[in-house]
Amino acid sequence: MSSPLRIVIVGGGTAGWMTAAAFASVFGPAHRQIRLIESSEIGIVGVGEATLPHIRFFNRRIGIDERELMAKTQATFKLGIEFVDWARIGDSYIHPFGAYGSRIAGVPFHNHWLRQRAAGDNTAIEEYSLPIVASRMNRFALPAEDPTDVMSTFGYAFQFDASLYAAYLRGFAEARGVRRTDGKIVDVKLRAEDGWVESVKLENGEVVTGDLFIDASGFRGLLIEQALKTGYDEWTHWLPCDRAMAVPCENAGPLTPYTRATAREAGWQWRIPLQHRMGNGYVYGSNFISDDEAATKLLSRLDGKALATPRPLRFTAGRRRLTWNRNVVAIGLAGGFLEPLESTSIYLIQIAITTLIDYLTERNAGSPATFDPRVVAAFNRWIEMEYDRVRDFLILHYHATERDDAEIWNYCRNMRIPDSLAHKIELFRSRAGVVTYKDGLFLEPSWLAVYLGQRVMPRGYDSRVDSLDEVEARLQLTKVREKIKAALMRMSPHEEFLRQYCPAMPPPAMTGAPG
Amino acid sequence: MSEIRSVIVAGSGPIAWIAAAGLLRAFHHRRLEVSVVDTGASRDARVGRWTLPSQRGMHALLGIAEPHFIQHTGATFKLASEHLGWQGEGSRFLHAHGEIGTDLGGTPFYKFLQNAALTGTAERPEAFSVAGSAARLGKFARPMGEGAALTASFTYGFHVADAPYAQYLRAHALRLGVREATASLGEVLLSEGGDIHALRLTDGTTLSADYYIDCSGPEARLLGKLAAAEREDWSSWLPCDRMWSALGPATNEPPPLTHTVAAPAGWFWRAPLAQASMTGLVYASAFQSDEAARAALAAVEPALRSEPTLTRFASGRRHKFWERNCVALGAAVVELEPLAGADLHLAQIGLATFIELFPLARGSAVEAVEYNRLMAEYADALRDFTLAHYRAGPQRPGEFWAATRAQPAPARLADKLALYAASGRINLLDHETFEETDWAWLLLGSGCKSDAIELQIKLRLGKLSSQEVNSLRTHVQQVAASMPRHIDFVRHQAALAARVAG
Questions:
Q1: Prediction pTM value
Q2: Chain A positions with Cβ closer than 8 Å to B
Q3: Do residues B328 and B213 lie in contact, with contact meaning Cβ atoms separated by under 8 Å?
Q4: What is the pLDDT averaged over residues B268-285?
Q5: Domains of chain B from N-terminus onward
């Protein structure tokens, strides 16, 4: 067997510790030696308080006990994201973690709904989604396994304190042999012959060498950009928000099992309920509002008393040209940034980590660590595809709006969008067709929720639904609603469920971690 | 803008009748009128073909009972293809329509074989495949049970002659209510706006519909009038452009298996029928004359039962599969040597996609954009899989075989083969017909080397004991051996159908 791969992780936020925990768990000590360097002087961004259901695959793969994780991170459950005021002021829709009804006569459900609608039935499509109905009622239960049970038609994710999450993963990783070093990196040494990173030097003079370097240093990209000059593709012309203010506040009212994103005059505001507090933030474009005004607006729109002063953040939407360059893999913000509108930050970290784990090959005994360029290229293509698909989905939220009350909305409504997205919208608008793909995030129900929620109303629908007798079709739709209503009775109020399932420890010292 | 009430399918082969019957079934509720206009029996007609398992689903959709189909067409079952000599004299590998081993808790079993090959103890995948083992033994049964059961670990396609199949499908379509024009296609008439307005038939009458399906073969007699003839030419990768094919003698023990054998300028093939066999030579005219090829076929199969027919094709695809009110299926849009047996499959994907995107009104354009995007991906994926037979593993000597590897592979295939060579990993793109297991059959079977294997897979394989592997092999062999002889199964099906009819 080969000598263990020496992995050096630079940065200890969510990205760094997720990587450390995953590598430590999947590969035994005989195969890897992991060091994580973080500086307690440099604050972490603590990205992503709200997650997507995919995080559960990650947890399962590396062996994390979810109940314990929830209790230790002040976590709540999440069934979807509510979007308020996006297409028009006064609108609200939920992007659910689950399907609307199910195919009838081989045709996607929403076409049957559209047919009934054309016949004068005004039932909202929300009524056919258990996670949405449950969200609106603040109820929760774990999904069922039995695929014939309507309780199996949804998934869930978590809303948690990202700093506590990083701390939890740190414990998990250190227990599996990850060695943490507190220190600031002052120099990066590249190998003369091929420009690979040979070592990093700490402030105290220590030199840390490694085979594979993970750049989890955040936006600045200490290794991937500052050392390797990899380059960055900017997407600000499509996603003009470039700043955020984040502030926690006291909870008020029942804990919602969903995240809320409210469109504002220069961007949007997040609201993420945790057991002990509420996370809030205002994501905005600096072209459209000043920092001070954004902070003031944010503070005036909180559920409860602010628990800190707003913390500013800056970013540029886009993706690093290569996620894996030489022997450096950029994970988290070092790899790219897409605003947390659809809670994709942790997903993008996770997918980079699991893809890297899946692609790494064994090495021959005694040979030095090299990474086959063919594997690196395939990895980079995969990550690009993931980013591009998320990007198009985010742009849809901004572009498909009727709002004309603020400059940002006028800009986004009229901007030129990627051709791939324009085609998707046109297919939906003309005939309720949803472009789907095999890999990548966001399946048919997600696109559907956002199209309809953003008032992209189809002019027609798949005419195959007419093969089903109209009365029979109506009956089937009614049945779905009834099943959902019955299932609701089997669910508990979200707070009650949390109390018995994963009550959090007493609140720790306050950390204001933005989404 | 008005609703589509009628469709004319132009063509004579199996694809035309499948399209007509399929459309009628799908839009029965709205009384879609479907007519077929014969485009004249093509001189190029091939003797027959082998199909992918999707033909089973298509039969079910059209309401065709399989025993009835077997009885009336003389078709046989196909569990696998065997490719001889593609990687040099003496090389051979199987591609079966079934799993290789069983899933190892998220890791496919072929990874075990891949790892074994790295350490020099390669075993053939068919030893762990019910479909592969049964194919070798000349046995056949339908899959049974579900889930991870070995008896449910495979599927099958067919070997069928074109003339009886087209006739059979025609009779079925007419029974369903498809109409057949009294005369064949003369001229395509366009409207001022540029749509197809009507077809003038050879008897002088005209026939018109809202939509037209062009199944007229390489000539693309309808679509060719509308779309610029812009094509992607694949012939630099796939130089074969001709095929001689004919009926051959019956064999005593027809295997549920298609054979292909590498030849100096292409490849021979042979596929069994219930009462005969089919055989052919696919070759590149740049490397072999038609006469020489015909003589070569006669030399390999001296007892031909029919006059060989010559099929010409130019490997490639059109840029547009759907233009205005015309959609083309089959060789009218994609021409490819029949190696993968996927031409009916691709036409059927086209048909299903057209049904899914069936325009709500005439003159709607977004459907065609989506259709052309999807079908291009499907076609390119099929090209890649076909091409991979030529490019995987050791290279067979000879001028023709050198030519098949002279050009760099298309990027998407090059990427796939490169990743495999580096790590044993098989990545699929969005719309691929052949799945990971199919690629595993091809890449493992052809002796395609990988320099390493994924570390996490290697660690998981370490937990697999040789006892487990041996027991799997034994179990697979037992299941395969317990099946009836293929020919008995075919006869039994025909007898069953006769009894039902009687």
A1: 0.95
A2: 26-28, 31, 357-364, 372, 374-375, 377-378, 381-382, 423, 426-427, 430-431, 433, 435, 437-439, 459-460, 462-464, 466-467
A3: yes
A4: 97
A5: 6-76+160-233+315-381 (3.50.50.60), 98-155+382-481 (no CATH), 242-312 (no CATH)
